[in-house]
Amino acid sequence: MSTAEFILFWLFAALTCGGAIAVCVSQNVVRMAFSLVLTLGSTAVLFLLLGADFVGATQLLVYVGGTLVLIVFGVMLTATGPFTRIKSSAADGILSGLIGVVFLFIVASTVTSVDWDGGEGVAHKIAFGTHGKAVESGFNPTQQGNTTRQLGLSFLSLRPDRDLNLGAQPASSKVPNTAPVVPGAPATGMPGVTSPSEPKLSTGYLLPFEIVSVHLLVVLVGAAYLARTKRRTKS
Amino acid sequence: MQAIGPNPFLFIGAVLFVCGVVCMTTKRNGIGVLMGVELVLNGANLNFITFSRFTPLGLDGQVFSLFVIVLAAAEAAVALAIALNFYNNHLTIDVDRGDDLHG
Amino acid sequence: MDSLGNTLANLLTIAWLLPLFGFVVQILFALKWWGRKSKTGAYLAIFCIGAGFVCSSTAFYKWDTQAGHLVFKEAKPAATAEVAAPESEPTAEASDEHHHKKSSGKQTVFSGTFYQLAQFGDLKISLDYYIDSLTLAMFVMVTLIATCIHIFATGYMSEELVEDYVDHQVHTHDGGHFHRPGRFYRFFSYLSLFCFAMLGLVIAGNIFQVFIFWELVGICSYLLIGFYIERHSASTAANKAFIVNRVGDFGFIIGLMILWTSFGTFNFADQHAADHSVKPGLFSMVTRDDHGEFAKTSGGKDVVLTTQQDGHGAWQAPPESSPRKTIAYTLLIVAGLGVFGGCVGKSAQFPLQTWLPDAMEGPTPVSALVHSATMVAAGVYLAGRFYPMFTPEVLLTIAYVGCITAFVAATIAIVATDIKKVLAYSTISQLGYMMLGLGVGGWAAGLFHLITHAFFKSLMFLCSGSVIAGCHHEQEMPKMGGLLRKMPITALTMLVGVIAIAGLAIPGVYLKFWWYIPYLSINSDHGYVLSFSGFHSKDAILATALGYTKLNPLHFLLFLIPLLTAGITSFYMFRLWFYTFLGKPRDQHLHDHVHESPWVMTAPLLVLAFFAAFCALGGEHGNLFQTLSHSEPSHVEHGFDGSQSHTVSLPDSHSLHVKPAEGGASTHDVAGRSALLAAFIGMVISYLIYAKRVVNPDDIKRQAASVHAFLANKWGFDDLYDVMFVKPAHVVAKFAAAIDKFVFDEILHTFVRMGIAVSKWDRKFDEGVIDGIVNLMGNSTHSLALSLRNVQTGKIRQYVTFIAVSVVTLFVLLFALYPKG
Questions:
Q1: CA dihedral C724, C729, C735, C739 (to 10 degrees)
Q2: ipTM of the complex
Q3: Architecture of the domain made up of B8-92
Q4: What would the pLDDT profile of A115-135 be if each residue is shown by its tens digit?
Q5: Which of B48, C116, C423, C703 is the most buried (most CB within 10 A)?
Q6: Are the beta carbons of B62 and A58 separated by less than 8 Å?
Q7: Which of C372, C447, C540, C397 is nearest to C136 (CA)?
Q8: pLDDT class for A179, splitting at 50, 70, 90?
């Protein structure tokens, strides 16, 4: 964990939170859109910091490049005049803010009350490998390389990250209790559990992938149908 | 220098989520509501990625987040189409005007 | 003889049932087939009754040629009454089970059963026939008169041949006249029904059958009197006739009950069972000995019924040792009085005479047929038919009732001004004569008068009908006058009737011409008068009455009053004729519009006038009287000496004609001459007052105002009955109504009020509790929905807020309830 990383994290964490708050606070749609761009972009950077390079890239491409453009078009198409404001009442804001704060407090307290290291700081070690040789069951880009190929394989129902984790096998035997037992998924990934003679393959995401593809197509058609210009008969 | 654990990321995710909810409740502009939804989804995404990194969830978390992004895009497209229709019918984008189904 | 009985029964049955057929066809189909404007129904009725007349005449002819040998024999003017009368053949008893010819004395009777209706123990209720010369004479008379009247009525009732008949005597509330459909066909169907009932009454072979048809003619009378039912007077008169008749019929029913209990049979004639045993009929059970005495028990209180036949077939009382049927003598009197009570009602005798004048509200042909010639004569007919059952005491009652009736009605007729009312009172008076004749022992005389009266009274009623039709329904004689020239046929035929009823005659004139016509041939070489029918019959009655008073001087009024009445009759009948047809027109406007009636109305008048004039030709030696006397009960002919049994004596019908040895006129001649004198006096007075106007009748009226008022008030009978019966009935009715209203109604009302109270309480319970629960549920649901409705604002942002708040709340609750998981 380099210092740069540290700085980058805090910088973009601040940007993310600030953008999100700005979206909430701003009364101008365009400004909100701009703040949203900031927030989403910063989130993408946070993804990258977490080692999810393909997801971060997708976030930038799809969200910032696609969805937000879409939203800006929506703003443009629905704006009755330049810089239109539809003001919400202050009472609404105060009430919502109050609820938000309470919500945030609850979530934050919940998050902080969880001991992610399982009492032995495991998560921490897994995450950044500060205690010598890293023993991980989470995804470690430093060991696995970039995620693009693995994600693509998982969409083809191949899980080399679990089933072909050759390098991790001997290492894992050294640390007997590595991670909290997650039913199903760890069974294959757990070293020593799986017999080499009869490897059990993890499931991939081919079917969901196909479904999402068709889903996108349907949504495309549906959106086009919904948004097609219909002159209102009243006018 | 202390390594950054999952808590800060989760906190940021919570902030995004809460901001999204607040955005949905306060914005009378339909597009603003849409943005709030995007914020909520992003908060959730950030959680997925965080757990993907720090728990045995592994690559699955990233796969889920990818699905979420795709669905968010689809949702945005449909929601925008709906918003446009709403605008066509009410000549405004104010969601408070869309109370035709009030009791 | 058996074949003769069958033939007679068949012919008379056809004559009897044809009108029924006509009635059924008319009442069911006339309107559908021919409509209101068609006379076809009337023609059918005429055909039925006309065919009945032909059948009856044929039967009469058959009977006479084969059994009677009285009328249709070779015209021999020199035959004497003594020779002619008892000529029935002493043949053997009929062996046929259906027919029985009784040859005791002069009688020839055929009887049998049509159909047995029911049997109660020994008592059989059946439809029988009983045919003797009286039946046949009645059949011919009824069918002939009915045919004439039917034909007359086709003309008289032709106003009814419309779809919309306007009754000028009925006023509606708005002052207009009453409109209704014409009822021509209905009139004739009623007439047919009446003919059927009347003929059934005549042919009936038992007293119960008589009663059935008695009531049937009663209902026909009711229907016909009330033919113009919309007129208040007509409906009231119909009710009055029916109710008054009920009084008489009550007596009739009492008589029937006594007969049933004591005699066990209703049959007049003997009945032959299949095993050749003979069951005695009513007449056979009360035979008299040669002195006219009933067979009585040793105590003399009870009459022994003669239920055993001796070797010659004559009925006699069983010996004292064997079981005998007896009837208390008093009970026999009561039975006779009861049956006579029915006759009093039907024949309008004192004291039930009040309904007949009111019955003139019916159409005039009805008055002619029903209320003068036939139905009212049915009472006389029954009295004659039932004659063997009457004890001398009953006969005395009959005589007095008839006498009083004759006198009272005649006096009222003097002051009556309505032409039909005069004739109605005259009818009552003449019916009284008939009853008197029967009562004093002149069986044949009374029924003789019945036949002759039927002809001349129906003639006069039809004449009055012709006058009324000609005068456009004006019935008041004071408005007529001088109609002789306007309606000559009516006037002259009426004159025939008037002479007939008045009993005028020209003594000592022979009419040899008539001898060559078979029916009218005369069996007498006696001093014989030129006269119309009424003279002879009235003569016969008065002669019998005189003979009666000679035997029973105590009852001298029974001759004097009828004699006086004969004079009064002559007076008021000529008054009617003079009033109507002579003198100057008193209502010029009416007079100008008078016209003679068409031939359908005058032709029957001529036919009836012929019979009214000549049916009784020959008097008591004539064919009609001899035919009737052929059926005379055996004990009547020789009279009855009641001096030993402290009852009245009856005269011997033959002795009336015998001139006393010491010289002078016979009883018959004395009576005839006095009656003729009385009639002439009456006519002359009438002529002087009403034709010559020697004295102004109005002056007389003023002089004797109280008498006139008394007579015009009909001797106050109506008022008397009003006070005696109607008013008390009203009082009782009011009392009953009050009981009903204040007691029964109150009880009912109490129940009803209780019911209402319960219902009200029930309603409150329903509305308050049951409905309250249901409404509460509904209302609460509704209000809940109303309040929840406000939550559904339709605002998305609010929903999101709710979700957020809910999540927060959930978390808070979760942490609060499970603090450390």
A1: 150
A2: 0.91
A3: Orthogonal Bundle (1.10)
A4: 766 555 555 454 444 444 444
A5: C423
A6: no
A7: C447
A8: very low
